[in-house]
Structure of Aminopeptidase N:
Amino acid sequence: MDARTGADSPATPAESKAPQAINLADYRPPAFQVDQVDLTVDLADRDTRVVARLTVRRARAGATDLTLDGDPAMRLDGVTIDGEPVAETRLTRVAEQLTIADVPERFVLETVTRIDPVDNTRLEGLYKSGGIFCTQCEAEGFRNITFFPDRPDVMARYRVRIEADASAYPVLLSNGNRVEAGTLDGGRHFAVWEDPFPKPSYLFALVAGDLGRLGDSFTTRLGRPVTLNIWAARADLDKCGHAMASLKRAMAWDEQVYGLEYDLDEYNIVAVGDFNMGAMENKSLNVFNTKYVLASPETATDDDYDHIEGVIAHEYFHNWTGNRVTCRDWFQLSLKEGLTVFRDQQFSADMGSAALKRIDDVRVLRSHQFSEDAGPMAHPVRPSSYIEINNFYTTTVYNKGAEVIRMMHTLLGAEGFRRGIDLYFERHDGQAVTCDDFAAAMADAGGVDLGQFKLWYTQAGTPEVHAEGSYDPGAGRYTLTLTQRVPDTPGQTGKAPMHIPVKMALLGPNGQRLDARLAQGEGRADAEGFLLDLREASQQFVFEDVGVRPVASLLRDFSAPVRLTTDQSRDDKLFLLAHDDNAFARWEAGQDLAGDLILGLVADHAAGRALDVDPAFVQAIEQVIADAETDPALVAEIATLPSEVMLGQRMDEVDVDGLFAARQTVRETLGRALAARWQAVYDAASKRLAAGCDAADARQQRRVKNLALGYLGAAGAAGLRLAEAQYDAATTMTDRLAALRVLANADDPARERVLADFYARYEDQPLVIDKWFSIQAVSTRADTVERVAALMDHPAFTLANPNRVRSLVSAFSQLNQVRFHDASGQGYRLLADTVLKVDKLNPQIAARLVGPLGRWRRFDATRRSAMRSELERLVAVSDLSKDVYEIASKSLA
Ligand code: PHE
Ligand code: ZN
């Protein structure tokens, strides 16, 4: 039989130009459920054979036709129902779907398909990476492996038989427990895996390869032993220890904090070099990007260590928040992602410093999510429409989604939140549910009304909150007026006020918290001040018994993802920077001051005035670094200036060159004026490191030492010599890379030498070579565009590896504002050219590159039109993927 009609012809331009949007409002429960999936996967490079036996049950009365999803590139070799071949007349195969007419109420469907994993450069479905067969099914990759109702509300039990060449693929893995294994004729072997937990198809996984194993074990609090395995290339096994230790910490933490225990006998992690995202939470068989597994002090930075710990924990936490309870449909993606990001943030805060973790998370949110929320792709945490779901694995769904969960945690308190989580699992374990179900569990367990709060799921855009305070000394009364506005976003105007939790405190002249009484306005006093409920467009909060003029410390710990402006003076902010007892708020005051200063200088630059740095700011930073010995990491955070990207968000029109010049001037001024201080900080930290200190202290010392090195490098030649010496003597990647960064930005004879040395040292370590590409891509030097273009022709550069593309092209276009936005437009052209080339290989990665061009409205007329014309060039391409089409066309709209 041949059911391939129409399947192999490439999509016509008309089809690819007007892809269908999928709408939340059109959701219908599935017409058929699948209870059991039996797969036999016979692995071969160009011709893998997949036999799927599905036990199917009608779920919607009156449904007669079964529609399955299936990639047009799959060859369908046979279809039977209850053992009988299905007549060709009952089969319709159109685009991505196969429909079988007149099926019975219950039946066993068997299909035979053939696929080509080697040809799969999209890295979705079954593909090969470095000689390893692996799968990636979220969101809709399972349909590239076999025909299936590929939607998360179809949950089945899986039994998987893998057959492969025994010498090339000695390790055969899938979800659940291995129940059988043995040898076959012709040098082949097999393994059978059974997963007892019903799961959606996106959590299916299979791996086959010649992999090394790092084994360990964990005993759950109920005494169940769990075998833990990390599988990687043998040469990388010595770099898996940190990931393993992180996994065990995550398992223990989830038991302690949430009472959640692992539920199978085995937990496998496989590290592969070609991966579209960071990692994937497939049931008991996580597949990871090597970037989030491999680490040694010589090859990974301190930040890399943190990211690995966070991602390992994230995927582990998904076992409950994502796998045991999953999403009803992909509009609910934040149900699992927002919640799991929040959980991994909490975990990392507990493993290290809560304040530093919060600062880091807010920095990520502001630099990425706030710009997304202000651009053409702005969408709510729960989107209501999409063309390609892969485009909605966004910082809004993940990071703003986590902020929404965090606000519930703030509103309910830790205990109330825990009761809410318990109720959520009590109600929904084993189900595919919605964000409403989650919020209902929280509201019921916490006894709170989340009606207005739920606007956070449906209204896009970053709310703007403005605060004004006034003090009446005679009455001892302080009045705080908060106003809010939610900006228009594509498709959404005239939004309602949100429920915004505002943590705050009133501080007295020595920084002490004042015991005032909240006499008017919704809110409550807590151990650290007050938690106010801002619910209206404008609201007054009146505090009585305030004996002295207070300074308000507002939005402590960043209690809501809003843009806050205040009527506070420079002196109030300097006071908060010096005295606020909330570390986050203290950092925030410093960032705010730095921003005010730099934006003032941008105006001076535009007006042709000299750039004079406010000495009060220099003095404030000098005071901050006096604490470098007691709190080195926090000092380093405070003394780090906000990025040009973040500063640009505060301007009506981004002045690319002015921002660069102004920020650079402040860096150089701080470097020169405080050179002796920086040198002292550098020396003290180096001495402490040389004397030997514990790991946590060592990384704090490196952090502050490398901050000082950066300022010394900005100050002049002596700093560059110090960087060169540090580069040569470095024993950690953190130190070597920090020194390389300073030199890569400089016009210095040592620059080329150290870059060449770095390449030669790490040539055989792809993750380190990624750093080599990135550091050149983010260089502030004026020749960076040409340099990036030349690096694209470097023998080690390839468009086929997502990490490599990100290391060069994403780093350049997303982090290097001044050079990417070079007035010549070369950066834009380079990006669009790359998008088109990558689109042929991997549409998902191509679409993720488009973002920076979509920000065209934020720039001056010349840049605006250059960016627009690149977008127009993209949408005019006839065989563009729907992934790129969606982003590029929405960016132009
Ligand atoms: N679900 C993964 C995570 O957040 C991310 C992912 C999405 C990976 C889609 C691959 C494909 O942990
Ligand atoms: Zn996730």
User: Anything to note?
Assistant: The two ends are 46 Å apart (CA to CA). The chain has five domains: 1-210, 326-458, 464-568, 569-715, 763-893. Residues 1-16 have pLDDT under 50 and may be disordered.
